[in-house]
User: Fold this.
Amino acid sequence: MKRSTLRTVILLAVASAFALAVQTRGVHAQESTAGSTKIVVDGSTTVGPIAKAFAEHYMGLHPEVNITVSESGSGNGAKSLINGVCDVADMSRFMKEREFKAAVEKGVMPVAHVVAMDGLPIIVHPSNPVKALTVQQVRDIYTGKITNWREVGGPNVRIVKISRDTNSGTYETFAKLIMKKEKIAPDTEHVGSNGAVRQRVQSTPAAIGYAGLGFVDRTVKALGINGVYPDRESVRSGRYPIARPLFMFTDGYPALGTRLHAFVTLHLSPKGQEIIEDIGFVPVTDY
Amino acid sequence: MAGTSIPTEAGLLRRHLMLSRSASRLQRLGALAARGALLLVTCSSVFAVIFIFLFIFRDALPFFGLRGFAEVFTDTAWYPSAEPASFGALAIFFGSGIVTLGAVVVAVPLGVAAAVCLSDVLPFSVRQFAKPVIEMLAAIPSVAYGFFALVVLAPLLQEKGGVVLSVGACLAGAPLGLLAVVVLSDLLTSRLPDPSRPVVRLVLMGGLCAAGFYGLTQLVQLLLRLPIHSGTNALNVSVILGIMALPTVVSVSEDALHAVGRELREASYALGATRAETLVKVVIPAARSGILAAVVLGVMRAVGETMVVWMASGNAAQIPRPWFNVLEPIRTLTATIAGEMGEADHVTGSARYHVLFALALCLLLICFVCNLLGEWAVRRSKARLR
Assistant:
C-alpha cells in the first residue's frame, strides 16, 4: 500500500515535470511567431520613466500587448537595438558615430524619435539672495574655483555643492552641458536621487544643486542661467542653456498602424504630453 | 538468537540512530535521499560563501590587470566616469575608516557602560525589561536610520550644530571628567600618611573639579563658534552607525559579563573589595575577550552598513583637512559600490565596472578578518571561563 502511494507520487512528479517542459516550449514557440504583441524597450535611465509610463498607459488600452522596459543606460540601449534584442532604444544622448556604423553593418537603420525635452534647473535655498549665475560661474563653483557665495554676490558663507551620483543621466547632462571636460571638485556631495537633491537644498541655506525640472517647487529657488529662467517655454525653445532632447530609437521608421508605431508616436498625443509633463519633462509639441 | 541482538548501553551510544533492520529497501532509499537533501541544504550556505568569494575575485582581478595596484591604494582622485578616468580610492578607504572609528568611539564606551550597568548595577527586573528594548534597536531597518540622519540630524547639525556638539561634549565629558578626578585624586593621595589623607583628597578633588569645569566651559565656547557647513558629514554618520552598532555591543558584552559568574564576584566581595573595585578589577578583566568580540562585531556592523552612509555621509570622495575634521562630508566603500554599480558597463568589461569588485573584495577581506578576530576572541573567552 505504502509503496504504491510512493510510486504514484513519483510518477505524478515526473509527469508534471514533463508537462511543464512541454508547456514552456509551447510559450516560446508562440512568442517567436507572434512577435508584434511584444515590445521590448531598453536603454537610458532618464528616458526609462517615460517609456514605463507610456507602456502602462498603452497596455491599459490594449491588454493583449506586452511591453517590457529595462533601464540599462543609453549605451546598452544602443547595443541592444544593434543586436536586435530590443525594439526601442531609449537614449538620453544621440547615437555615436561608431554605434551608427555598427548598426548599419548589421542591417539596422536607427531612426530617432524625440519624445521630450529635459531641462536642468540649478537650485538654491529660497533664502539665498543670489538670483542668477552664468554657466561659467556654475562651472567655477563645481570645480572649486569659487568657494564662497560672497564671490557671486551672496552672503559670506561657504558654498555647499550638491551633485547627483555619477550613475544618473542627470549627472551626465550636467557634466556635458556645464562642466564640459572639467572635473567636479572632490568635496562635492553626491546624493542618490532628484528628490534627495531637493531635500538637501531646501534644508541647507548655503547649498547649490541641480535636479530635473519636475522637482522644482516652492521650497527651492531655481536660478537664472545666463539670464534665462528655466520653464517649459525656455527649455523647449532651447534658450535655457542646460536642456537636451530625449530620444527613442527604432530600427527604421515602424510600419504605420503597427503597435510599435503607436508606441513611439504616443508622445504626440495629448495623453502622451500629459504623461511627460507629469514625470517632469517638457513635451516637444503643444496642444 | 534474541539474546545476542540486545545491544549494550555503550553500543547504543556509539551506534547512529538508524532505521530498524526490518525497514524495506524503499524506506532505506527514502532515508538516504532525505539525508542527502538535508546535507545539500546545509552545504548551500557554505557554497554561497565560496561562490561569493570566487565571483568577486573573478571580477576584481581584471581591474588590477587593467590599472595595477598602485593607483587604487595611493591616489585620492576618484573620477570613474571622466575621460580619462582615474580610480584613486584612498579617500574612500579613509572615509570607511574614519566612519568606523567614529562609530566605535560612540558605541564602545556607551555600550560597555550599558552592559556593565545591566549586568551588575541595575536590579534584575530592570535588566529583563531594558535589554530587549536595547536589542530592539537592531530591528529598525537601516533605511529608517538613514532617513532620520538625512531629514532630522543633518538639518539640526546645520542650524544648531554648536549647541548639539556642546550638549554632546557635556554629556560625554562630565562623567568622564568626574571619573578622572576621582581616580587622579586617589592616586595622588595614596602615598600620604593616614590622618591627613581624607582632607587632602577632598581639597584635591575640589580643585580638580573646578579645573575640569573650566576646561569644559572653554570647550563648549569653542564648539559653539564652530561652523558646520553641511550636516551630512562623517560625524552624523558616525553617531548613527554607533547607535546601530550599540545593540550588538551591549548584548554581546552583557552576555560576557554575565558569564563571569557569581562565584568570582562573591570571592571579590569576600576579600573586602567594593562593588566598583570588583567591577573594574575582577569582572571586566575576566570578560575582556567577550567585550573584544563585542567591539569587533560592532566594527563589522559599521564597516558593512550601506544605506545610512549612502544617504547621510555626503559621498564626497575627499580626505578632509585636517584629517580628523569629522564635520566634512566623506565617502565610504559600501556607498561607492552601491552608487556606481548601475551605470558601470558590465558588457564591455570596463575598468569602471571591475574597480567596484576590487573595492568589494577589499571590503570582504576586511570583514572576513574582523569575523575571524571576533570568532577567536569569543572562543578564547569561552575557554578562559571554562
Remarks:
- Chain A touches chain B through 35 residues (CB under 8 Å).
- The longest strand of chain A covers residues 110-119.
- The longest helix of chain A spans residues 2-33.
